[in-house]
Automatic annotation (TrEMBL):
It comes from Helianthus annuus (Common sunflower). One of its GO terms (cellular component) is cytoplasm. Belongs to the cysteine synthase/cystathionine beta-synthase family. Pfam families: PALP. GO terms for biological process: cysteine biosynthetic process from serine. The chain crosses the membrane at residues 6-25. This is cysteine synthase. It catalyses: O-acetyl-L-serine + hydrogen sulfide = L-cysteine + acetate. Residues 55-395 form the Tryptophan synthase beta chain-like PALP domain.
Length: 428
């Protein structure tokens, strides 16, 4: 009897151990499952909700461009600004311009924001204006791609296509846009006078322009505001308060250099000022397309010869395929930049770079972004391996289908890409 009793005892103790093991394993599984669940839940809860379209602007990802980083031995990082709701870096600027104008009382809800722009800023203004209860009127040169005015109209903006003339001409599209805001204000003032409303004090910051007739802007008499992206420092502040701090946070302050091309100069100005205030050792550079005077300004202190000054030429002074960058006058925004140096970039380099990034990284970017990446590689090579260089991907190739991303157009201009790798950057 002793042997079976012993056997039973052994079996019982074995079963108990197995049962305990089973319980333990299941508990671990349960804990691990619930941990995983918690992680997922926490992750979801931590994703901040964005407040409307305006809240969805900014906080763009900082992407490591693997191909360029591997090729240079540097970390080449780029802000994916093409992911903003309006498709470009200019969304930040549009928001800042409108918000500052509303705060100062220069723009009223229901008023019209006017801008002379053939590009991204107009699209961004048209995108965000309705979120502020405002309208948007855009004046563009009639040689700008037709898709641009179609997009603007689809967004609800009114569009005026005008003959391209020099910036010094009163009918340059920027000058007409300024005038349209004045005309809208004139209408608003007439309204105020007619209703004799003594308590209404808003004049939107402008006096009526008696010399201008035939306003085509109807703002339902709430007045107008000229966005003026080149001279309005709200542009610079959008980057000083937004893009710059985001780059600093996303890199943990561990970056050595920043580089971008300039149109209005808002991006290089805002980002360079912010980064230099954080760490004066961060090198800030400009990359400049053909036809622009900024390279000379940064490297030699002189922008142009007298003959080249903007306004002395009859039409478009630029000889570049890149859009939105390059300029021959010193804007208030650019004056805020703190730059250590500049590089020149060519059209073929920008085209080749865009194809290289598409092939190697799956990045489909526009012409100014491609020029920025040309600059980033130049700067990385200047600094040497082991450095972190940040740049901007301003918009996507989707905005450039008819020219920069059109093989026929490129072939007509002798810009057909043929490089196998980055050898095109050594050909100068
Ligand atoms: C597509 C694109 N990239 C770059 C820029 C240049 O940026 P910024 O005006 O801040 O110098 C512009 C300006 O209009 C632009 O439209």
């Amino acid at each position: 009897m002793a042997a079976p009793a012993k056997l039973i005892a052994i079996i019982a103790s074995l079963s108990l151990s197995l049962y305990s093991l089973y319980l333990l394993t299941n508990r671990r599984r349960a804990i691990s499952h619930s941990k995983h669940k918690t992680l997922i839940t926490t992750h979801n809860n931590n994703k901040p909700k964005r407040n409307g379209i305006v809240g969805a602007i900014g906080n763009t990802p900082l992407i490591r461009i693997n191909s360029l980083s591997d090729a240079t031995g540097c970390e080449i990082l780029a802000k994916a600004e093409f992911l903003n709701p309006g498709g470009s870096v200019k969304d930040r600027v549009a928001v800042k311009i409108i918000e500052e104008a509303l705060e100062s009382g220069q723009l009223l809800k229901g008023g019209v924001v006017t801008e002379g722009s053939a590009g991204s800023t107009a699209i961004s203004l048209a995108t965000v204006a309705p979120a502020y209860g405002c309208k948007c009127h855009v004046v563009i040169p009639d040689d700008a791609a037709i898709e641009k005015s179609e997009i603007l109209e689809a967004l609800g903006a009114t569009v005026e296509r005008v003959r391209p003339v020099s910036i010094t001409h009163k009918d340059h599209f920027v000058n007409i846009a300024r005038r349209r805001a004045l005309e809208a204000n004139k209408l608003a003032l007439q309204d105020i006078n007619q209703t004799d409303t003594k308590n209404v004090t808003n004049t939107n910051g402008y006096s009526s322009d008696k010399g201008q007739q035939g306003a085509i802007v109807s703002s339902e008499h709430k007045g107008g505001f000229f966005a003026d992206q080149f001279e309005n420092l709200a542009n610079y502040r959008a980057h000083y308060e937004g893009t710059g701090p985001e780059i600093w946070e996303q890199t943990g302050g561990k970056l050595h250099a920043f580089i971008a091309a300039a149109g209005t100069g808002g991006t290089v100005a805002g980002v360079s000022r912010f980064l230099k205030e954080k760490d004066p050792g961060i090198k800030c550079f400009l990359v400049d397309p053909p036809g622009s005077g900024l390279f000379n300004k940064v490297t030699r202190g002189v922008m142009y010869t007298k003959e080249e000054a903007e306004g002395k030429r009859l039409k478009n002074p630029f000889d570049t395929i890149t859009e939105g960058i390059g300029i021959n006058r010193l804007t208030e925004n650019f004056k805020m930049a703190q730059l250590d140096g500049a590089f020149k970039g060519t059209d073929i380099e920008a085209v080749e770079m865009s194809r290289f990034l598409l092939k190697n990284d799956g990045l489909f970017i526009g012409s100014s972004s491609a020029m920025n990446c040309v600059g980033a590689v130049r700067l990385a090579r200047l600094l040497g391996p082991g450095h972190t260089v940040v740049t901007i991907l301003c918009d996507s190739g989707m905005r450039h289908l008819s020219k920069f991303c059109n093989p026929e157009y490129l072939s007509q201009h002798g810009l057909t890409p043929s490089a196998k790798a980055l050898e095109f950057l050594d050909c100068r």
